[in-house]
Design goal:
heterodimer; A: alpha+beta; ten-stranded antiparallel sheet; globular; disordered N terminus; disordered C terminus; B: alpha+beta; nine-stranded mixed beta barrel; 10 strands
């Protein structure tokens, strides 16, 4: 293991020098440029700052792709309050998470309508097992988390598909819009299985088959294999997309619940996706071992 | 055996001529349509050169078509390094730690990959660790002094063939599981040609004067997945690595 460790350190430093940033970075913008040597430091305080969000700018009427889909292609940043940190309204600070608003619009209290045992589990994860936070381990995020993913995403629409290319972990989400059915429920995936269809100007994405190993945020709000997510994505104009998603799992929640947010076009016309190489020299678990009272050092898998 | 090799070599030389007789269907903007789910059916991921089987690594033929001996033209000191790499491959091969495989290795891993096209991009999405290659088709140039695990790919069309220039490659990746490697001077020119409806001929010219005495070329076939329910699933490598580490405690 010693060799492995030193190799990782070497790789980590190479990666850090070239392009690696920590996730999350306090107050960091995502104004990365090709050739940039930006390096995020470890979290300095108890509270994370906001992520970059494109300014709200009115656009032109939405155009069409060659196969007639409303055209959403380009680079986008999400505006979902502080849902990246916690999807629920969280007026009280938690270790590593400052107070803020989430993205839940139903129920009206902005909280996930957990059944008692599920609420206890979420609380246990937040207060005792935060080192399990999936993104700290470079796990791919599920749905709807991918919609308010840190650093935003690029949308590409080849014939018959809508693709979301996320900079985080250099990954993608491919949604066929050809009317095909879901894959067998025997197969569970981090990203789940998504099928889409256009209902007028709205892309409706139905996602099942998630594997229950992801969280909605960094605060212990876990997903289950049973969740059924229906996202409704509506381009309002060329610069603005309206987003909502309903999450349902009758075994975990007392009622279906809904999140909503806005997605704004990135103003940089020369934007290109960079490579957020996550596994390659991951330092993120340090967040839970230094300064925030985490237990990763003692209990977390693969802590270095 | 020598005769056999000669026959294979001549077939490989003939292949591009065959390619020109097939005209691929076109996308809406009139470019050859390479879209679909593809996968190799070879052992290049084990070793690009001719190789016999060892435990858990099947035997296979070289995919190197130039030089004609099917061997990587290493400089002497680099040949020595490759032998060291092979010995230390369990730890030294970063793919075993689930790192992004680099180019060209991602193209011949034993995982399906999906190609999609728009006027501005050709995207290659591999099932391996959700790895994404973005090939820019807008005439733009490579960025300056920065490297990426997956490199930087800029392409253009030459008739039936997608030609991709790949630079800005991280020096830490390998070509295969046998320790075949390169330096930070690596530069690759790939050629993708749909030579039959369900076959994609993939070629990569590999140049790295710090490591090799001359440029060399690999060529192989990608086969279309024709199962009606074919769809990319996922191979979340780092997750399984963590699971294995936990189990072994």
């Amino acid at each position: 293991m010693k060799n492995l460790k030193s190799l990782n350190l070497v790789i980590a430093s190479i990666t850090a020098a070239a392009l690696m940033t920590f996730a999350p970075i306090p107050g960091a913008g995502q104004e990365k440029q090709k050739g940039g040597k930006g390096k995020g430091g470890p979290p300095g305080g108890e509270q994370y700052g906001p992520y970059y969000a494109a300014p709200v700018t009115a656009g032109q009427p939405v155009g069409k792709t060659p196969d007639g889909q409303p055209d959403m292609q380009g680079f986008w940043t999400p505006r979902f309050n502080q849902a990246i940190f916690e999807i629920q309204d969280h007026p009280k600070a938690q270790p590593g998470i400052g107070p803020g608003k989430g993205a839940i619009v139903d129920p009206a209290d902005g909280r996930i309508p957990y059944k008692p045992e599920a609420a206890a589990k979420a609380n246990d994860l937040l207060t005792k097992q935060i080192y399990l936070e999936p993104e700290a381990h470079c796990f791919v995020s599920g749905v709807p988390h991918a919609a308010y993913q840190q650093f935003g995403y690029q949308i590409v629409q080849p014939a018959g598909y809508v693709l979301f290319l996320t900079e985080y972990a250099h990954t993608y989400r491919a949604i066929p819009t050809d009317g095909r059915p879901h894959i067998s429920s025997n197969i569970k995936l981090f990203r789940g299985d998504s099928v889409g269809k256009w209902e007028g100007g709205t892309l409706v994405i139905d996602t099942t088959n998630q594997n229950g190993k992801t969280w909605f945020d960094m605060a212990g709000n876990f997903t289950t294999q049973a969740i059924h997510v229906v996202e409704r994505i509506t381009p309002v104009d060329t610069n603005n997309i309206s987003y909502e998603a309903v999450v349902d799992d009758a075994t975990t929640y007392t009622q279906p619940w809904k999140i909503a947010g806005q997605i704004g076009r990135h103003p940089d016309k020369n934007m290109e996706l960079m490579e957020f190489a996550c596994v390659e020299g991951n330092q993120d678990l340090i967040h839970y071992t230094e300064g925030v009272g985490g237990k990763a050092k003692e209990k977390g898998p693969l802590t270095r | 055996m020598r005769f056999h090799n000669a026959v294979i070599c001549s077939l490989m030389v003939v292949a591009p001529l065959v390619a020109q007789t097939y005209r691929a269907p076109r996308t809406a903007e009139g470019k050859p349509d390479l879209q679909g789910i593809w996968q190799v059916m070879n052992t290049a991921a084990v070793n690009l050169e001719d190789h016999i089987a060892i435990l858990d690594m099947p035997a296979g033929r070289s995919v190197i078509v130039d030089p004609p001996d099917g061997k990587i033209p290493y400089r002497p000191e680099a040949a020595q390094q490759q032998k060291e790499n092979f010995k230390n491959r369990a730890k030294a091969d970063l793919l075993n730690q689930c790192y992004i495989p680099g180019v060209p290795r991602v193209m011949y891993l034993p995982f399906p990959l999906q190609i999609v096209q728009t006027p501005k991009y050709v995207l290659v999405a591999s099932e391996f660790a959700h790895t994404l290659r973005m090939i820019y088709m807008d005439g733009s140039k490579h960025p300056g002094d920065v490297d990426f695990w997956i490199g930087d790919s800029r392409g253009h069309w030459e008739g039936e063939t997608l030609v991709v220039d790949v630079a800005n490659l991280n020096p830490e990746t390998w070509f295969d599981r046998s320790g075949n490697f390169h330096s930070d001077a690596l530069h690759i020119v790939e050629r993708f040609t749909r030579t039959e409806p369900d076959l994609l001929t993939y070629e990569a010219r590999i140049e790295d004067s710090k490591t090799f005495t001359r440029p060399w070329t690999i060529r192989m076939l990608l086969y279309r997945h024709r199962e009606p329910n074919a769809k990319l699933l996922e191979y979340e490598c780092n997750v399984y690595l963590e699971d294995a580490a936990k189990e072994s405690r």
